Amino acid sequence: MFKPLSLNIGLRYTRAKRRTQFISFITLTSVLGIxxxxxxxxxxxxxxxxxxxxxxxxxxxxxxxxxxxxxGNQLRNWPALKEQLKDQPHIEGMxxxxxxxxxxNAGRRVSGTLLRGVVPEQESAxxxxxxxxxxxxxxxxxxxxxxxVLGAELATFLSAQVGDKITxxxxxxxxxxxxxxxxxRRFTVSGIFKVGMYEYDRNMAIIHIEDAAKLFRLDNNVTxxxxxxxxxxxxxxxxxxxxRKLAGRYYVSDWTKAxxxxxxxxxxxxxxxxxxLLLIVAVAAFNxxxxxxxxxxxxxxxxxxxxxxxxxxxxxxxxFIVLGATIGLIGTALGVAGGVLLALNVETxxxxxxxxxxxxxxxxxxxxxxxxxxxxxxxxxxAIAIIAFLLSLLATLYPAWQASRVxxxxxxxxx
Length: 415
Known about the structure:
Blueprint: H1 4-15, H2 21-60, E1 66-69, H3 78-85, E2 91-106, E3 109-118, H4 120-123, E4 133-135, E5 147-151, H5 152-158, E6 165-176, E7 179-193, H6 198-203, E8 204-208, H7 209-215, E9 224-229, H8 235-245, E10 251-254, H9 255-258, H10 260-298, H11 300-308, H12 313-357, H13 378-395, H14 397-404, H15 408-412
Parallel strand pairs: 3-8, 5-7
Antiparallel strand pairs: 1-9, 1-10, 2-3, 2-6, 2-9, 4-7, 5-8, 6-7
């Protein structure tokens, strides 16, 4: 792209000692500004990617990859459907469930709760709630015993411990000679789970599927079938094909529909943070403008002599484009190296800083994610590096154009 003469002179200017130390200082700040901006951008995006991955993991630990339900929010003859789904590709696990809204009463405390009925022996095939038990075990739930497992926050709110009796109030009612009264059932707390998501820890309780069917008067029916897929990121396409194979007799949905607003909000936040931090890189890149303007002023005599020897205005432009691009390239390279190293070690560096200063940035009793997760995405790194370098290149155009307009006669008149 550049002719050898322009390239050689431009690179020589990057190594030459300035007659004015201030120009060298501005050049150094331009390089450091780009490097710090790129480092910050890579690190912040990696941390946000880590948070998104951690939240997705925790949500999908309780939410099935896909769900099959029937008409009227009931699934009849679900064992036959289970046999049919066994022959379908991409399905790694499945389990029936019953779901409904109830009120839970313990002493003087009452809370609205999502009640889920499960088959304890099959639930591990579609969720990780069995691994998140703080007290008791999910397999302790036995049909007909009317036992219940509470989320940790819900148990705290109700002041309920393992072994306590609580009352579950169904929205369905019983007609009696005394009038219409709600359906009540006493349950014994047999366990407490904590998945680290307030939505589930505060608003969910789990019972045996047969007890749930009796509570909601479903007879032998269930609400639906939860599925675990081999590729959760391809869930929309898999569920679409599955829905067509089931010939419209069932409604098939996936996890992206249930939490689409949440993950869309995270993507929007990442996009906004990228733009905000990119402005830091842009400001640092455009410091190159002031650097090159002062270099052009410092080298007016050299430019005039080169022009009298036949150097064209375009060749003069290329000299200062090379100079500015070199500054931008060095700053971008340092920023990428620093950002990648920081992103890969942020989970080690932050705890070390906390120990050294004896502080806790993300206390476990306040934040559900008490550490800074990081996930380096190389596509983000490449995009940041290319954009930073292009901004640096753009910042060289005006000073280079000014250099090309230097009039040798005016400059050399007083030499």
